[in-house]
């Protein structure tokens, strides 16, 4: 599933194609999944941003209503933009300068056009924590929340302590911080290590263009078909049975909160006693 690094890479890649352009049409055959996209017609794209795993196209006010809007995109598990139409094209976005195609084999992606900043129908977006690479992501607050949190990986995936961390980058961050994915109530030292690990992993993954896994239809690709490169640096995610890069112990996989979870049992032992 595309996480923050993949969505940020998408934003950076397609922004030059869309910023300053006028949307002529957004066509599809699934209005329940791509809501109110007609409201984007005739509006200029004033810029693109990202919030967690959500991509946002900011739309200038139209003469008809004088109100700015956002076209919000969630890539789902397999969504992404392409320069060419294909068998899994679900949405065609045509501007005065060209066309982009939203490609989504498994059909979990979503779009919605809403008035600027009105996200009442999107509880995940409304309740999202700070961006991991922003100044809003403060170590002191993260450590405070971690002291009373339940199992740390599901806590990260909730998007509340920090935004944009999904299955891949939670596993990788926890490995770097030497914390078991099911550990609860982190000590200040553990939480501090995790805070810095999340920032490091996210920064490196964004610079590498995200992670592309396998060769299947759901494999993340950039808009021009190029893969990300961070998968070559995965220490634990998808590495079941392979030696830990740090100690050589075989990587294990468990299911935690219904998500496949990878860790090193030697480097990431579960602490049984509660912190003092």
Compact description:
The chain has 276 residues and is an alpha+beta fold.
Q: Explain this structure to me?
A:
The chain contains 6 helices and 11 strands. By secondary structure, the protein is an alpha+beta fold. It folds into 2 domains: about 5-125, MutM-like, N-terminal (N-terminal domain of MutM-like DNA repair proteins, Alpha-Beta Barrel); about 140-265, Helicase, Ruva Protein, domain 3, CATH 1.10.8. Helix 3 packs across helix 6 (about 190-205) and helix 5 (about 165-175) crosses helix 6 (about 190-205). It starts with a helix and ends in a 13-residue tail after the last strand.
Task: Please give a handful of descriptors for the protein shown.
single chain; 276 residues; alpha+beta; N-terminal domain of MutM-like DNA repair proteins; Helicase, Ruva Protein, domain 3; 2 domains; five-stranded mixed beta sheet; four-stranded antiparallel beta sheet; 11 strands; globular
Write the layout of secondary structure elements.
Elements: H1 4-18, E1 23-27, E2 34-35, E3 45-51, E4 54-59, E5 69-74, E6 80-82, E7 89-95, E8 98-103, E9 110-115, H2 123-126, H3 139-146, H4 152-157, H5 167-177, H6 188-207, E10 252-256, E11 259-263
Parallel strand pairs: 2-9
Antiparallel strand pairs: 1-7, 3-4, 4-5, 5-9, 6-8, 7-8, 10-11
Helix pairs in contact: 1-6, 3-6, 5-6
- In the CATH scheme, the class of the largest domain would be Mainly Alpha
Instruction: State which percent range the strand residues make up.
Output: 15-25%
Largest sheet: 5 strands, mixed
CATH architectural type of the largest domain: Orthogonal Bundle
